[in-house]
Amino acid sequence: MTRNGPTEGTRTPRGREVLVSGAGVAGLALAYWLRRHGFLVTVVEKAGSPRRGGYPVDVRGTALEVVRRMGVLPPLRAAHIELRRLTFLAGDGGEIASVEPQLLTGGVAGEDLEVRRGDLASALYAAVADDVEMQYGDRIEALQDSGHGVDVTFRGGGRRTFDLVIGADGLHSHTRELVFGPEEDFHRYLGYCFAGFTLPNTFGLSRETVLWNEPGRAAALYAVEEGDDVHALLNFSRPEPPFGAFRHPEAQRDLVAGVFAGAGWEVPGLLAAMRDADDLFFDTVSQIRMPRWSKGRVALVGDAAFAPSFLTGQGSSLALVGAYMLAGSLAGRGHEAAFAAYENSTREFVTLNQDLVGEGGAALFPATARDLEHRNAMLRDLPAAPSAQGRPAHSALALPEFGSAASAGRTS
Ligand SMILES: Cc1cc2nc3c(=O)[nH]c(=O)nc-3n(C[C@H](O)[C@H](O)[C@H](O)COP(=O)(O)OP(=O)(O)OC[C@H]3O[C@@H](n4cnc5c(N)ncnc54)[C@H](O)[C@@H]3O)c2cc1C
């Protein structure tokens, strides 16, 4: 049921109507589980169409059970990138160590999934497309919680009332801004900025990551397949976020070029490619930490509520688990009790995973010469084989069964 354009002022008595803002990992997984629990779901997404490709993301631990219960494990296994190694290079390009990626990510080889973000989103989209009203190329302009429903005005001009609105619109969530206040109230800056972009894979790399480090600056190349584009990441430490650069792509490029001036290895070529890249993505490395994930009839999920940052590698997994827990908590309950249950059941898991920053993730980007030396010594001493257990935080939540009563959306 992929429709475009909202209907003016309609309201169906058949079940609770939920608007989800954002068709990313969290929004699509939430839409799926809400439908399973009997809700009528509309998803509004600012992009004009589903997004393909993208950088690789991980699905691990508890989140694997979420995708298994959704029935999308087979296509995701087929899309799995079997990353073979992670090679660390010194400032002069010399090799420091080459290790199995799971040694640092705490993942479990043979179980965890690593897939392109677009492949994950496509699998989730295929699971909901027939049952959910998708509204691409639009976004929430304003919303008003009347106590009995949420009156939404869309940028495209439509107006409609929903029983609930869920913000799944990412780290810089507009829903959060509208309902909970400015991002800086919840933004926890982790001391780094990064530029991500793709360039032709002229490096002969395949299913591997190469990471070049100097104190406070790092360049990574992530190759899925030979012949495919390679994902480049230029990451650098900075005490304060460079707010002035955010709205101006040229200022972002200048900032990154200035920070990496004089660097060796392939960095000059990467800077040249960044200048030409049409998919440059510049941001701070940050988390979102909120005291509450809901207010009235509006709640948040995924990066909008609890972005853990890519240093944890847990963003997609938290989005999947959060979506499952939120939808299940709503089944058969009024929204106040449901949102409280969602937080009570999910917050500890989220916090454990957000706290993984520093346990491997930040070790990828040491900011001082001393930290870099320690990191390199640690790499040389790593055991030969990864543990088969994975990090306890990844599996710290045992997923409850919420049942799939199709009538649940009518209750309360
Ligand atoms: C460079 C990079 C590397 C990463 N690497 C990893 C990794 O290795 N492993 C991992 O697990 N995670 C990784 N992540 C994080 C991961 O992508 C996110 O944590 C995860 O996708 C969270 O999903 P989400 O659905 O909450 O948010 P998002 O994926 O950000 O999706 C939000 C959606 O909302 C839409 N949207 C935004 N604003 C609006 C609006 N106003 N109205 C309507 N729609 C809107 C967006 O277009 C998007 O479709 C990485 C992130 C980045 C940036």
Largest sheet: 7 strands, mixed
* Structural class designation: alpha/beta
Helix content: 25-40%
Outline, from the CA principal axes? globular
Total helices: the number is 12
Ligand roster:
flavin-adenine dinucleotide
Order of helices and strands: EHEEHHEEHEHEEEEEHEEEEHHEEEHHHH
Instruction: Describe the strand arrangement of the main beta sheet, using strand numbers.
Output: 5-4-13-14-15-12-16
In brief:
The chain is built from 12 helices and 18 strands. With 412 residues, the protein is α/β, with parallel strands linked by helices. Flavin-adenine dinucleotide binds next to helix 1, strand 2, strand 3, helix 9 and helix 10.
Describe the structure.
This protein has 412 residues and is an alpha/beta fold. The chain has two domains: 17-80 and 112-186 and 289-359 and 391-410, FAD/NAD(P)-binding domain (3-Layer(bba) Sandwich); 187-286, 2-Layer Sandwich (D-Amino Acid Oxidase, Chain A, domain 2). It has twelve helices and 18 strands. Residues 2-13 have low confidence and may be disordered. The site of flavin-adenine dinucleotide (FAD) has 32 residues, from helix 1, strand 2, strand 3, helix 9 and helix 10. It comes from Streptomyces daqingensis. Residues 17-179 form the FAD-binding domain.
